[in-house]
Design a protein that fits this description.
Layout lengths: L2 H20 L5 E2 L14 E2 L2 E2 L9 E3 L2 E5 L3 E2 L2 E2 L7 E5 L4 E7 L5 E9 L7 E6 L2 E6 L10 E8 L4 E7 L12 E10 L29 E3 L14 E3 L5 E5 L10 E4 L7 E7 L5 E10 L5 E10 L2 E10 L3 E10 L4 E8 L3 E2 L5 E2 L2 E9 L11
Antiparallel strand pairs: 1-15, 2-3, 4-9, 5-8, 6-7, 8-15, 9-14, 10-13, 10-15, 11-12, 11-14, 16-18, 17-20, 18-19, 19-28, 20-25, 21-24, 21-28, 22-23, 22-25, 26-27
Length: about 375
């Protein structure tokens, strides 16, 4: 091959590789993630979508309905969280989209879901080989719609995101409604000499929809799962914690915090490397999100063999206090745990709870003098 031809071929290869890298999906709404691009009328039988690729950018399987904002289920109007349309997954139905990602990177998916039937409902979220069942039976908002997050590692440069309703009922259409799908690349948080905990201020987490004021739920997970609040884990059987932002809530520090909305049924946990025998100090903020969640609150913190209960009397208008736990590390790994010790509700009857933020852990031979709680 002539030198000029080789140069042209090399240049074409570089351009193609750069185009491939640039095509990796960006943070924000997935293509047609709000389902505003409707199926052709020819591929709708009433509300049921009949064509596998009828919903632009998505592929469906099973009993899938395209629900407009004024749609009725019997005498009940099915609400849509934003825009004009959403999708309902009936018996054993699924919807999927192929995503161009960076192999080895961690991503968080945020989406909205609502129950439409009386029985327990759940969603199976998959980005192979990662797959988890998300419980959506508990409703945390007065509208019935909650935003959920789920994280995974991209094992290839092209991954199928699949949302599946594993339920089968007598009413084939019965199942969750879904809407507003977004993605965010997660940056690996780091520890420092001033804080052995990673992501102690909760600034790294899932995508927030700017128009959604109810926060994002982080559901329970197995210990080997990837967390949207990495490396924090949510330990529970069916309940979640809520990730809140300063744009819509009172946050003690920075732009993000965690609201413990499920009482003693849920624990926020992180494992951290420590040196046995060293004295340690865990410090953190406990407050309220300024979301009308008023009343007596309390957060119990555990680390090593130590624990401390931090009470907080909320007026539902924001505010916080500092908590301190001094303990001695007893192993080369210490589990830090936060649990809400009360069940709280807002005036509209939805679950709420204390906010935890600005968490730090320092272990040193030059242990600071013990101080009272601020």
């Amino acid at each position: 091959m002539a030198p000029n031809a080789r140069h042209a071929a090399l240049l074409l290869l570089v351009v193609c590789l750069a185009a491939g890298a640039a095509s990796a999906i960006q943070d924000g709404m997935l293509p047609n993630g709000n389902f505003e691009e409707a199926p052709p009328k020819s591929q709708l039988n009433g509300t049921r979508v009949t064509g596998r690729n009828a919903i632009p950018r998505w592929e469906i399987s099973g009993y899938v309905e395209y629900i407009r904002s004024d749609q009725k289920q019997g005498d009940m109007i099915l609400p849509v969280p934003e825009g004009a349309a959403a999708v309902r997954l009936g018996n054993d139905a699924s919807i999927q989209q192929r995503l161009a990602l960076t192999r080895g990177a961690h991503y968080s998916i945020t989406f909205s879901a609502a129950r439409t039937c009386a029985q327990a409902e759940q969603l199976n979220v998959t980005a192979a080989p990662e797959s988890d069942i998300l419980p959506i039976q508990t409703v945390y908002t007065s509208s019935g719609w909650d935003s959920y997050s789920w994280a995974f590692e991209a094992t290839a440069s092209s991954v199928s995101l699949i949302i599946h309703n594993p339920g089968v009922t007598e009413d084939a259409a019965c199942g969750p409604m879904i809407d507003l799908f977004a993605i965010k690349a997660l940056q690996p948080p780091q520890s420092s000499k001033n804080n052995l905990l990673k992501n102690g201020d909760f600034e790294e987490g899932p995508y927030f929809f700017p128009s959604t004021q109810y926060g994002v739920l982080v559901p329970p997970m197995d210990e080997d799962d990837f967390s949207p609040l990495s490396p924090w884990m949510v330990m529970s059987s069916t309940k979640s914690v809520k990730y809140v932002d300063a744009a819509h809530h009172a946050v003690p520090h920075g732009a993000r915090a965690v609201e413990l909305v499920s009482g003693m049924e849920t624990a926020l946990v992180q494992n951290v490397s420590t040196v046995p025998g060293l004295p340690c100090r865990l410090q953190f903020s406990v407050g309220d999100a300024g979301n009308a969640c008023a009343g007596s609150m309390a957060v119990q913190a555990y680390a090593g063999r130590g624990s401390v209960k931090v009470p907080y009397q909320s007026k539902g208008k924001g505010g916080y206090k500092r908590g301190v736990l001094d303990f001695t590390a007893i192993a080369d790994q210490t589990r830090v745990v936060f649990v809400s010790m009360a069940y709280n509700m807002k005036p509209d009857g939805t679950l709420c709870g204390p906010v935890v933020d600005d968490v730090s852990l320092v272990c040193t031979r030059n242990h600071p003098a013990r101080r009272l709680l601020l």
